[in-house]
Design brief:
The chain is mostly helical and about 425 residues long. Helices cover about 75% and strands about 0% of the residues. It is globular, with a radius of gyration of 20 Å. The two termini are about 35 Å apart.
């Protein structure tokens, strides 16, 4: 029998759930979604308040992209946590990440300078990225084949709400007693919800079965990574080739939106917040709708289309004037949600249960390295072009390499059971 939707699910009325979703699935999605909401809130604060943070910490114009890029490199140690999750389970590590990113987000409010900010946000991103990777793995392993894209889209929709909340709070940044620092105080809230999350999250059934079949794992620390590459070399290379150029362009496109609007289009913080809230309401459905569409039409087709539209919309945003700017922004964010959902889905579906958490970590690491590389290049292009808008526009076309590699190298996963796509070896 189809489970009744909880009250919060009606926030996403535009994407009705598949019939196979149960009450346990709703409980799991609620807990993961709340954690991801606060995760995205922290990321959103850096995106919208970048000019204020830059001024408060005294960061030079040519180094602002580098600061954001270094912070994102927290994905590298996060990869170690995801490898550990293939040995001890998903639930334990998920709960650790909630505590970690909440504490670091809160402490960021008290940083004394740029170095403190980078360290605290680097560690916060370590836990955030690990949490996002593991949440995708849990949804992938728990939902049926016809609902995986929709489920990951729901997770990203919660992330959109987190970005929206950061935009709403940012509207008051000029009036808050501690300015941008006050935005990070809210990072403590997930700790208050931790007891509920602990009850709501259980170990995935697929990992429990895998652990029963294989017994206690005695592998060395790096064995999950070595085994992943040895068993799936073509799939790792294919996913990397498709994702990396998209990440180079996409991360830079998103990071400089608020700064571009304030510095080059004359938007005030309040106007940025209005755009991000009103436009975000329109765009937040991109992840769920793209995920649901990919369940029916295939991951590769829908993802390739989203990348092309995202590139066109990004150039229109950074080169446009007047009403073109907000309209293009909605297009960028709508398709960016879809891109994130579908790459996350592929990163989990292409690999077996014994390697899925590690593979999700590799996918996130590749994306973040691409984003960091793009942010570093943006600083060089800013010197050449003299504006962030021109620099980001010049980088946007790099993403068009992604659909080429997707269609030529990446297997289709939509509508197939995980065991059919990549079966675990008995006793492995």
């Amino acid at each position: 029998m189809k489970a009744r939707r909880p009250w919060w699910a009606w926030l996403f009325f535009y994407a009705p759930p598949p019939a196979c979703v149960t009450s346990n699935h709703w409980q799991m999605l609620g807990a993961l979604g709340v954690a991801f909401l606060f995760n995205s809130y922290d990321i959103g604060v850096l995106n919208v308040a970048l000019p204020q943070i830059q001024a408060g910490l005294g960061v030079p114009e040519t180094q602002v992209g580098l600061l954001a890029g270094i912070v994102r490199l927290g994905v590298l140690p996060a990869l170690a946590l995801t490898m550990f999750a293939d040995r001890v389970g998903r639930r334990r590590l998920l709960l650790v990440t909630v505590i970690g990113f909440s504490a670091c987000t809160f402490l960021t409010a008290f940083c004394r300078g740029a170095a403190d900010f980078i360290v605290l946000q680097f560690v916060a991103r370590l836990f955030m990225y690990a949490q996002e990777m593991l949440a995708v793995v849990v949804i992938t392993e728990e939902l049926d084949a016809g609902a995986r894209g929709w489920g990951i889209g729901m997770l990203m929709a919660f992330g959109g709400l987190g970005h929206g909340i950061s935009a709403a709070v940012f509207a008051t940044v000029d009036f808050l007693p501690y300015g941008w620092r006050a935005l990070y105080f809210l990072g403590v809230l997930p700790l208050l919800l931790f007891p509920w999350m602990r009850r709501a999250l259980g170990e995935t059934r697929r990992f429990a079965v895998h652990q029963q079949q294989c017994g206690p794992l005695q592998a060395a620390w790096l064995d999950p990574m070595r085994e992943l590459i040895a068993r799936y070399p073509r799939r790792v290379v294919a996913l990397t080739a498709a994702l990396f150029p998209v990440a180079i362009a996409g991360g830079t496109i998103v990071q400089f939106q608020s700064k571009f609007l304030q510095a080059e289009r004359g938007y005030s913080p309040a106007q940025v917040s209005v755009l991000f809230l009103v436009g975000g309401i329109l765009a937040i459905g991109g992840g769920v709708l793209c995920g649901r569409a990919s369940d029916h039409f295939g991951r590769r087709r829908v993802l390739s289309a989203a990348i092309v539209v995202n590139t066109v919309a990004a150039v229109a945003f950074y080169r446009g004037v007047g009403p073109i700017v907000p309209l293009a922004w909605v297009g960028v964010i709508f398709t960016q949600f879809g891109i994130d959902v579908l790459f996350a889905a592929l990163g989990g579906e292409l690999f077996a249960t014994s390697h899925r958490s590690t593979a999700s970590g590799v996918r996130s690491a590749v994306a973040t390295l691409g984003i960091a590389a793009g942010l570093g290049c943006e600083g060089l292009l800013y010197v050449a072009f003299g504006s962030h808008g021109s620099a980001v526009s010049a980088m946007a076309g790099c993403a068009l390499l992604g659909p080429v590699f997707l269609m030529l190298m990446v297997p289709e996963t939509a509508g197939r059971e995980l065991e059919e796509i990549a079966a675990d070896r008995s006793g492995s």
